[in-house]
Write a structure and sequence with these properties.
single chain, 2,3-Dihydroxybiphenyl 1,2-Dioxygenase, domain 1
Length: 117
């Protein structure tokens, strides 16, 4: 069964990632790891896992959802036809997953992901 459109990942964008991580770990017991060189924190929730990305002080904070698609290139083409825009074209991550970032017609950012085969 296809999981097209299912939320498969999410990330918080935070100006103070340490404080944000400590708050959610204490509140929900989430396991948070910053064991990478980019300042990104992986979050294990016991459900759909996510991440915490540090952003500069002038950037907006928020939460991005990443929906699973079978074909990122096709989904990007379709979202442009529907009035959305691409803000980061397809990238293949070191773990083999592919992702892209887009804006819906109202200006909200979201991600598209295709898991590695």
């Amino acid at each position: 069964m296809s999981k097209h459109g299912a939320v498969m990942h999410w990330q918080m964008l935070s100006k103070d990632p340490e404080r944000t991580a400590n708050f959610y770990a204490a509140l929900f017991g989430w396991k948070i790891s910053d064991a990478n060189g980019m300042g990104y924190r992986m979050i294990q929730t016991g459900g759909t896992d996510g991440g915490l990305w540090p952003v500069p002080q002038e950037a907006p904070e928020g939460v991005q959802l990443y929906m699973q698609v079978d074909d990122i290139d096709g989904a990007l083409k379709r979202l442009v036809e529907l009035g959305g825009s691409v803000i980061m074209s397809k990238q293949v991550l070191p773990d083999g997953d592919a992702m892209a970032l887009a804006l819906d017609p109202m200006g909200r950012s979201f991600g598209l992901m295709t898991p590695r085969a």
